[in-house]
Amino acid sequence: MTPALTTRLATADDAAAIARIYNQGIEDRVATFETEPRTAEQIGQQLRDKGDRYPTIVVEHDGRIVAWAGASSYRPRPAYAGIADHSVYVDRGWRGKGAGRAALEALCPEYERRGFWKLSSRIFATNAASIALHQRCGFRIVGTYRRHAKLDGSWMDCVIVEKLLGDAARA
């Protein structure tokens, strides 16, 4: 049985927990091309910079943050204003227990309410768990970027996923 999980919008007070989970993702080399750990101060500034336009969702269990999902601008052109590029990170001890799904299922309607019509992401082709999670949450695989970038000197392919929101999903 999965323990009760709750979701909410992140605040600046969550920066340390978000940084802790993000840094696990950096260390594990399964979810990001980033290689340098982030500080709580850096994450706090990022949350402030994104403001209400690009909120971050946190997932809690018994008051402890166990996962988060956030997004940022896809491209600067006005035509892309309704597309957000998202990420999901789950604490090592909570992977496979529904925390990632809770984060994504809260992120999608939150961004739809803000007028976004699409969420997209690039997932390491080797990260089968994240690809499966996104598919379970209604994302479709668009394609694969071959040799998208190098991580620790090795080429990494990325699977591109997207989910239409709002009017775009109903058209």
Count the helices. How many?
Answer: 5
> What is the oligomeric state here?
single chain
End-to-end Cα distance, whole Å, is: 37 Å
Stretches with pLDDT under 50, minimum 5 residues: none
Rg over alpha carbons: 15 Å
Number of DSSP E strands: 7
**SSE succession:** EHHEEEHEHEEH
Structural class by SSE content: alpha+beta
The largest β sheet comes out as: 7 strands, mixed
What is the CATH first-level class name?
Answer: Alpha Beta
CATH-defined architecture: 3-Layer(aba) Sandwich
Helix fraction bin: 25-40%
Question: Any idea of the CATH topology?
Answer: Aminopeptidase
| Percentage of residues in strands | 25-35%
- Strand line-up of the largest beta sheet: 1-2-3-4-5-7-6
Mean pLDDT: 96
Provide the domain count. Answer: 1
Using the alpha-carbon principal axes, give the shape: globular
CATH homologous superfamily caption: Gcn5-related N-acetyltransferase (GNAT)
